[in-house]
TrEMBL record:
Stretches for region Disordered: 1-20
Protein family according to the UniProt entry: Belongs to the ABC transporter superfamily.
SUPFAM superfamilies: P-loop containing nucleoside triphosphate hydrolases
Record keywords, A-Z: ATP-binding, Nucleotide-binding, Transport
The protein's name in its UniProt record: Glycine betaine/L-proline ABC transporter ATP-binding protein
Gene Ontology molecular function, alphabetical: ATP binding
Domain ABC transporter: 48-284
PANTHER family found in the cross-reference section: GLYCINE BETAINE/PROLINE BETAINE TRANSPORT SYSTEM ATP-BINDING PROTEIN PROV, GLYCINE BETAINE_PROLINE BETAINE TRANSPORT SYSTEM ATP-BINDING PROTEIN PROV
Length: 377
């Protein structure tokens, strides 16, 4: 299947090409400082740690040799501590920051080769950014703030207002169309920022720590909003956060950054269940494993008798926490059923050992299965 898409590919088309890359990033570097260009190509300089590089050259490598794909329809989270390079990396995707080396493609098109007009179109139509400081126009109403992107595109007033009203309702601000930003709460303002990015129907939404200034309850509301929008539209999203819980909650996959490098790229389950190194292990140490790891991690092969049984059943993507409930309620093992196929069995010992961190690692799946009928919970 071709991965080429029209510049303003509608979200509805995203599902048909699920899994193909929207952004492809290869060997990306961003070095700040004098004669930054020489760093990526010089193996000796490229191998220095941040302090060493700074001492030797006066440069900071904010992004170091990073490669990844953002797949169509996924929420791709870039996570890391302050200064790890998240914002620089995501700004490089649309060249809000010019990369020093490496390649970036969107739907196969070379972003680094784009001229100014094409770049403008990329930022306005294809990859819209939602910022933490949403930069709303204070004298404009909510409706006109949202319609602003369409105005820039040259859309007529009636049409852009109608479209803006639709998106204002979609983000839960119905009835507030005529308010000005100063008359809104922080969470509501963030919704306007989100609506403003959504109204141009971009192929990808880029979120730069959009919720970090919000209080915890409003933040949770906004996270739910993003999950809902993603579920409804399957729009591709790249989401920067330094908050591990937010990353685990929102991300289909997470790129964990440290000192400009991606130290691990994987699903929440892979990152929590199989940390790539001690840094990641330490990072995820306090995560409640039972809420992230799934029964795939905990199950063992089923005997023929167990597979044919009629006891409780759980889906393979059910969390360990959900499985504990099912097993506790039934007082015995539960079958793991995938569309009627028995993939294995989970029992209380296996579930406990996942919580204790002594179980099998994430991502290893049972391949054998038995066709069975049954409802998985
Ligand atoms: N314009 C610049 N000039 C020099 N150094 C920079 C510049 N912008 C960023 N840096 C440095 O690059 C590194 C990565 O910064 P970046 O803002 O990408 O990190 P971040 O992970 O997004 O941090 P935060 O969570 O605090 O926003 C930091 O060491 C930062 O000081």
């Amino acid at each position: 299947m071709s991965t080429a898409a029209t510049p303003a590919a509608p979200a509805a088309s995203a599902g048909s090409e699920a899994g193909s890359p929207v952004f492809s990033v290869d060997g990306l570097w961003k070095v700040f400082g004098p004669k930054a260009d020489r760093v990526p190509g010089d193996p000796e300089l490229a191998a220095l740690d941040p302090a060493g590089l700074r001492a030797r050259t006066g440069c900071t490598a904010a992004v170091r040799d990073v490669s990844f794909d953002v797949r169509k329809g996924e929420v791709f989270v870039v996570m890391g501590l302050s200064g790890s390079g998240k914002s620089t990396l995501v700004r490089c995707l649309t060249r809000l920051i010019e990369p020093t080396a490496g390649t970036i493609a969107i739907d196969g098109e070379d972003v680094r080769a784009m001229d100014r007009a094409r770049l403008r179109e990329l930022r306005r139509h294809r990859a819209a950014m939602v910022f933490q400081h949403f930069g709303l126009l204070p004298h404009r109403t909510v409706l006109d703030n949202v319609a602003y992107g369409l105005e820039i595109q040259g859309m007529g007033k009636a049409q852009r207002r109608a479209k803006a009203a639709e998106v204002v309702a979609k983000v839960g601000l119905e009835g507030m169309e005529q308010r000005r930003p100063a008359q809104l709460s922080g969470g509501q303002r963030q919704r306007v920022g989100l609506a403003r990015a959504l109204v141009v129907d971009p192929e990808v939404l880029l979120f730069d720590e959009p919720f970090s200034a919000l209080d915890p309850l409003i933040r949770r509301d906004m996270q739910e909003e993003v999950i809902r929008l993603h579920r409804e539209e399957r729009r591709t999203m790249v989401f920067i956060t330094h908050d591990l819980n937010e990353a685990l909650k929102l991300g289909d996959r997470i790129a964990l950054m440290r000192d400009g490098r991606v130290v691990q790229l994987g699903t929440p389950e892979e990152i929590v269940g199989s940390p790539a190194d001690d840094y990641v292990r330490d990072f995820v140490r306090d995560v409640p494993r039972e809420q992230v790891l799934t029964v795939r991690t905990a199950m063992r092969p089923a005997s023929a008798v167990e597979a044919a049984g009629s006891g409780p059943a759980v889906r393979p993507d059910a969390t360990v926490s959900e499985a504990i409930e099912a097993v506790a309620r039934a007082g015995g093992p539960a079958r793991v059923l995938d569309e009627g196929r028995c993939l294995g069995v989970v029992d209380s010992d296996a579930l406990l050992s996942v919580i204790a961190g002594t179980g099998r690692s994430a991502g290893t799946e049972q391949s054998a299965g038995t066709e069975l009928s049954g409802e998985a919970v």
